[in-house]
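I'd like us to work through together how a protein chain folds, taking it slowly. To get us started, please write out a protein record for me. Go ahead whenever you are ready, and we will take it from there:
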Amino acid sequence: MIWTPGVARAARRIAAAAAVGGGGLTALGVTAYGLLLAEGLVARKVIGRPHGMEGPTADGSYGAFPGMPISLVMLGDSTSVGLGMSDPAHTPGVLIANGLAAVAERPVRLRVFGRSGAASVELRPQVDKALKEHPDVAIIFVGANDVTTQTPPATAVRHLAKAVHRLREAGAEVVVGTCPDLGTVRPIAQPLRWVTRRWSRQLAAAQTIAVVEAGGRTVAFADILGPEFATNPGEMFGPDRFHPSDRGYAQAAYAVLPSVCAALELWPEPRPARDAQIPTGLQPIYLAAATAAEKPGTEVTATRVEGRATGPYGRWVTMLRRRP
């Protein structure tokens, strides 16, 4: 089911509220908030516990290449640290670091500052630590805990935008994996599943608007990247049925890797192309954000049309589906 017009309107309201520091409880209203709170408590009882409360230590240097290392930092929530994995090699940070090293033919120095359970309001101390590393590129996975903790979307988006802005001011490229679709999580029952799906995608679209405006680029996680999560939950989700399995993390990492390479000018920027999934590669930001929220793996980044960054309907952006 596609809610692009509604998602676009909601995302625009959320992003506008974030910009001025206001905004109501949520685009879905008080009733949905109460429903999410009540049924969320039930879902939490059903969801098992992953292996440990933090991911394995993944900090280190990757890629046996000469030259100055590329500094890569991972920020965000449990998905940024690979919660549920026992082997660091299966975490998103290490997968991306190895892939980036192979493309750049340079070593990559990885530091992971994400924290299990973190919401967007907790990004500031992570950015403080990351800036000490003088990162070339920062990757942020965040959003799921904003939904599960009922953080007002405008508040979540505002904190994410500040994090991206600080990193960009320091010279780091920024790639954000937007809020995944929590409607694919099996322990969450209907009608909560429908509520969380709509809320997740509205937040993802608003995140895209804020991140692009702050100078970063986004990759839509949607249903954490494909129908596999809906049709093969036993393989794509881990033992707790909430966090990804090693296959799930790999799919997320390899969806983000091409955008990381492109941000560092290691990957060619293809000309926007038409296909059956994306109406056009070049779109106004609000429509692009809503469309990307429905299309897993879609990258959104700012662009110019005839030398202009904005058009009659807002900032111009490019939508791409890259392949590793």
User: Anything to note?
Assistant: The longest strand covers residues 70-76. The beta strands are 60-62, 70-76, 108-112, 137-141, 173-177, 217-219, 282-284, 299-302, 310-311, 314-320. The mean pLDDT is 77.
